[in-house]
Design a protein that fits this description.
Layout (H helix, E strand, L loop, with lengths): L2 H23 L6 H8 L3 H7 L3 H35 L4 H20 L1 H16 L13 H13 L9 H21 L6 H15 L1
Helix pairs in contact: 1-2, 4-5, 4-6, 5-7, 5-9, 6-8, 8-9
Length: 206
Amino acid sequence: MSRKEQAKLTKEKILKTALDLINKKGFASVTVSEICNQAGVAKGTFYVHFESKEDIIKENYNSDMSEYVLKNFDDFILNEYESFAKDNPNKSIKEKIIQFLKGEFMYANHVGYDLICRAYLTNLSDSINGKKNYHFENRQFLPLLKELISEGIQNKEFTKYTKLDDLIVYIESFCRGIMTTWCLSKGNFDIVDIGEKHIRTLLVDL
C-alpha cells in the first residue's frame, strides 16, 4: 500500500471514529484526544488531516449531504418520475426540483439538528474569521440543481425570475432559511413535510 493510500485510510478512520463518538455523546462532549485514542492514532496525526474538531463536521456535511441528496434524487427518477410526468406533463420539471430540494431536508432530518447547527456554525465562523469558506464549492450536488433550473427556464416554467443565478440564490436561500428555523427550534417540526410544502408554494409563485 502506498503512503498516499495509507494516509487516506487513516483520515477515513479518524473521520468515522469522530462521527461515531459525536453521534453517541454529542459534539461538545467529545475531545480530539478521545477521538485519537479510539482511532488508535497520535494527536499529531489528527492535525495532519484536520485543523480542528469542527473540520470533522465540515468534511462530513459537505460530502455526506451531496451523496445523500443525489441518491435520493436518483431513487425518485428511477421509481416515481416516469408515472408523475405522464400524469402531469406541465409540472414535471418543477417536480424534479421539488424532489431534489426535498433531499436536503431529508438529509437534515437524517443527521439531526445538532450536526446541521454545527455545520452552519463552522462555515459562518470561517467567514467571520476571514478564512476561505468552501460552502458553495463543496456542494457537489449544485451543478445538477443548476441543470434542473436551467431546464425550467428554457421551458418557460419560471415567469418572475428568468436568470439562473437569481433563481439559485433565491431557492437555495429559501431552503437554508427553513433549515435555520428548524435548527433554532431544536427540530420541533417535521422539516421534510414542512419544507416540501413551502418549496411547492414557492415554486408555484415563481
